[in-house]
Every structure is written in structure tokens, then in C-alpha cells.
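Standup, Tuesday
Yesterday: got the pipeline producing C-alpha cells again.
Today: sanity-check two examples.
Blockers: none.

Example 1:
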Amino acid sequence: MAGSESWREYGPSPLPKVLQGALRVFAEHGYEGASIRDLATAAGLSVPGMYHHYRSKQEILVSLLESALTDLIGRCRSALASAGGEPIARFDALVECLVRFHMFRRAEAFVASTELRSLEPGNRDRCVTLRDELQRMVADVIEAGCAAGVFSTPYPADAARAVSTLCVGVATWYREDGPLAPDQVVERQLVLLRSLVGLR
């Protein structure tokens, strides 16, 4: 992500057409409920045409998950870089980044969180490594806040997992036509999550 504030910006999905179609199918039917024919139809391709782009349904899923996770990691790194060194500012920026991603890339976030179970072992290891990198960012920010005396939670590791879980959960309930504007969602989540880490 280029630019100090570009992590807040969301335009149309950057996914290629094949993956956009697959994303819709996986989000609606799940990995197990989707056939290569379903994926090809969603992409406007024949089955042989689909195999020209991807060797298998598994490869399509891996491409989707890696794309979502690397996008989110890049945004989180940019958010932290723009926040400076103060623990509270870093926590707020990271939470905002996670919440915005799970609002504006809901389908990607949903599939990434629910279909890790469908990955074959080697592929799962690659995606879990990316997920763990994200979780380490959250844990590091909270541990730094505790060390600085600005967060009072006695359980920073548990708090880090809870923060991630609540941010991921936004993808399951946020709707663009809902009662809250994106900035309001971010504001409310920050209130809840600052309390969770025991902001002094």
C-alpha cells in the first residue's frame, strides 16, 4: 500500500475476474458446496477455460486466501507506520485497519476465516503463517501498551485474541445499508476494544 493513509482507502475489488466469481460462490455455498463448473460459470468461462487459469479448486481457494491476507497485512503495516510510536495511537490505528477491512472486504474476510479448514496441509500452513503474522501484530501492540503502563489488562495474550475475534466478527454483521456509517462502526469498536485492553 503506497502512501501513509492509503490503508483507509477501498475501491473496487482488485481481484481478477476469475477470483471475484469464485469469491461469490465460496461465500454463498462454501468450498465443499462449490464445483469447478459453478466457479467457471461465475467467471463467465467454460470448465476447460477455468483450468487454463487454475489447476484445481484448491488452487483457487489458496489464491483467494493469500490475496486477502497479504492485502490485510500490507494495510496493517501501513497503519502502524502512520501511527508513530505511541502505544495508544498504534492500537487505535491497528484496530481501525482491521475493522475497515472486515467492513469493506467482507466476502474476502468471511471466506478467509471460514475456509482455512478446507485447505490441504501444505496450503494451510502457508495461510496460517500469514494469519499468525497478523495476530503477532495485535499481540505486539497490546504487549507494548502494557509495558508502557497505558493498558492494564492482566492477560495481554488473551486480550489480543479477543481483539482479533471481535474485529473479524464485523464481517458477519456489518451491512452497507445498516444503521451505522463506517466511521461510527470504527468509533464503537474502538470504545469496546480500548475497554477490553484496560486503557487507563
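Example 2:
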Amino acid sequence: MIKLRYGNTNTFYIAGAKGGLLIDTDYAGTLPQFFKAIKTACIDISDISYMLATHYHPDHIGIVSELQKLGVTLLIVDVQHSSVHFADDIFFRDKRLNYKPIDENVAKVISCAESRSFLCSIGISGEIIYTPSHSEDSVSIILDDGNCIVGDLEPVEYLAAYNHNPRLKSDWEQIMSYHPKRILSAHANEKEF
């Protein structure tokens, strides 16, 4: 797994034997910085078969539509489908971005239950789980090697501060049941176990 940082959001690339998966992108307008980041990491755009957003907030999906035009297939988890255009109005306000909406009609839609099989088909061992405490469309990626990408999920250390948030507690209980070795976040520092 390779961590790319070319803006405010950590992006992750996972190379599979039969295709690569990009987790999250940064804000709209960051495509040139993205290309510099993948070049530095020795990743070619053709290495990226699929991309997945941990959720559809603007700082996670800004260049998805541009990557779609370059041949990268968006992977949508069914619980995310109603949120795909959440950021459109935000991006449309800034005419300099020349933002084009995500085309969900050419995306691949799967359920969390189907995720292990799908990831296996591109040579990645792991699964996608539903972790909605941050937003209704949030998912986390649990890899069998112990890496876990949680997007904007509040850090596990914050549980005591959020003791009245049963959803956050439930999300972390579910994640911890996989015995992760490393938690990777979109904005926080990674945590080793």
C-alpha cells in the first residue's frame, strides 16, 4: 500500500495482482498535483483500475469524475449510492474548478457483502465494511494484512470524549473485531497496534 498526499486528504493506492485500487482523492482542482504524486510513487494512471471513496464529502471525491474520463472505474458501495452527488453544489459554486459531476452510470456498484469477492477478483485480500458514524455513506476498508483505512472516522482514542455516540462505538467495535495492525486515516496520523 502506498500513501499519497498531494493536498489535504491522504489518498491510498493498493496494488492487486489483477488491478490497482485508489482510496479517496482530494478536492476538485488537484489533478495536476495528483499526477505529480503518482509519478513520484512510480504509479502509472493505467495501474489504477478502480477507485473507492470512503464517503462523498468534497475533500474525498474532487477528482473522481476526471479520473473516470481517464479510464478509472469508480467502485460505489450500495450504501453510498444516494450520496454520490453530495458535493456537486459545493464545487459548482467555484466556476474556476470547471467541475463535472461523477457519472454513476458507468460505475461498478457492489454491496459490502460482495466486497471480499470483488477485491479478490483484482488480487486484493480484504473487505469493505459499513461504518456510518461519520456520515451515512461512510465505509472502511479492512485488508487481511492488518491495514485498515477508515476515512474520516473519529480516532479510536476519542471514544471516551464521544461516550454518547453509540454509532462511533459500534464502528470501532466492528473494526477492532478484525484485529487491525495499523489504522490509516484521511486526515489523522496513522495508529499502530
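Quick observation on example 2: The chain has a mean pLDDT of 96. The CA atoms of residues 28 and 63 lie 5 Å apart.
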